[in-house]
Amino acid sequence: MTILRQLANSAGFGSVIGVTVMLAVFTLIDFSGWWTPRTLFNVIHYTSILGLLAMGQALVIISKEIDLSVGSVYGLAGIAFITLEPSLGVPGSMVAALAIAALCGLAQGIVVVWGGLPSMIVTLGGLFSFRGIIYVWTGGSVRNFSPDAREHWLTQLFGGEHLGFENALLWMVLILVVLSGVLKLTPFGNHLLATGGAAESAASRGVRTDRVKIATFVICSVLAGLAGVVTLADQPQTHVTIGELLELEAISAAVVGGCLLSGGRGSLIGAVLGAFIVTSFRYELIALGAPSSWFITFVGIVLIAAVIFNQKLARRAGQNV
C-alpha cells in the first residue's frame, strides 16, 4: 500500500493514467490502424524528438520559470548544423550547433535572473529573435546535406539505427536516465526543487538559486539544440520554418507529464510520457481523418485538464500550490 500511495502522489502519476486510458481508447476505436508497426514507429520516433524538448522544458518549469523559445532554438541549432557543415565538417558543425543553443539558453537565463525580468517575456523575445536570425542567415532557403555528410559516422550515430532501434530513441532514453539520476542523486536535484518550491527559503540555506535557474535554461536550450541535430541527422532536408510552434507541444508535454507551473514539482519520465500522449493524439487524429485544427483544440483542452489535475495531486501530496 505504501508503494501504491507513493506512486499515486508522484508527479508523473497523471501521465501514467493518461497513457493507459489513451491506449485503451485507441485500441477500442482503431485497433487495426493504431497497432501497426508503421504507426508505432512514427509515434516513437517523434516522441523521442519531442521528449528531448519536454525534459528540458520540465527542468525550467520545476525551477518556476518557462521557456517559450525552445522551438526557435531547435530550428536555429538544426539550421546551424546543416549550414556550417561544408566549412567545419560534421563534427565541427555539430559542436557549433550545440554551442549556439547553449549560448541562447545562457543569454536568456542571465537576462531573466540578473535582469529580474519575467521568463515568459524574455523567452518570447528569444522565440522571435532566434527565428529572425534563421531567416536572415539563410535568406529563406536551406541547403541539404551532401552525400558524404549523410554517410559520416557521426551523422549515422545520431540519425541512424542500432540493433533495430532508432538512435533518436536511444539518445532520448540515455539522457532521461542521466538527468533522472542527476535529479535524484545529486545536490543539484534538491537545489532545483527547492528553488522552484520556495526560492527565498532555499537562498537562506545557501542555495545559489540564480545559478540553478541559469543552468536549467542552458540545459533546456542544449536539449532543444540536440533535438534539432538528431532530427536533421535522420532527415537532412528541412525548411526555415523547422520547429515553429514546437514550444507549445513541449510545454504541453511537460505539464501533461506532471510539472506544476507554480514550480517545485515535476517528473522527467512524466514529461516523456506526456510527449508520447501529445504525439499519439496527433497521429491518431490524422489517421481518423480529423482536421488539423482538432489537434490544437485537443492540446488546449488537455493542457487545462492537466493543470487542474496536477494541482489536486500536489495538494493531496501535501504541497502548497
Topology of helices and strands:
Blueprint: H1 2-9, H2 13-34, H3 37-62, H4 70-83, H5 85-115, H6 119-138, H7 147-151, H8 153-159, E1 161-162, E2 165-166, H9 167-185, H10 187-197, H11 199-204, H12 209-234, H13 246-256, H14 268-287, H15 293-316
Antiparallel strand pairs: 1-2
Helix pairs in contact: 2-14, 3-9, 3-12, 3-13, 3-14, 4-5, 4-6, 4-12, 5-6, 5-12, 8-12, 9-10, 13-14, 13-15, 14-15
Instruction: Order the strands across the largest sheet as they lie in space.
Output: 1-2
How much of the sequence is in beta strands?
under 5%
Order of helices and strands: HHHHHHHHEEHHHHHHH
Percent range of helical residues: over 70%
Low-confidence stretches: none
Distance between the termini: 26 Å
Q: How many helices does DSSP assign?
A: 15
Shape: globular
Mean pLDDT: 90
Largest sheet: 2 strands, antiparallel
Number of DSSP E strands: 2
Report Rg.
19 Å
Overall SS class: mainly alpha
How would you describe this protein?
With 321 residues, the chain is an all-alpha fold. The protein has helices at 2-9, 13-34, 37-62, 70-83, 85-115, 119-138, 147-151, 153-159, 167-185, 187-197, 199-204, 209-234, 246-256, 268-287, 293-316; strands spanning 161-162, 165-166. The chain has a two-stranded antiparallel sheet. The longest helix is centred in the first third of the chain and has 31 residues, at 85-115. It is globular and about 55 Å long. The relative contact order is 0.20. The mean pLDDT is 90.
Q: Keyphrases for this structure?
A:
mainly alpha; two-stranded antiparallel sheet; 2 strands; 78% helix
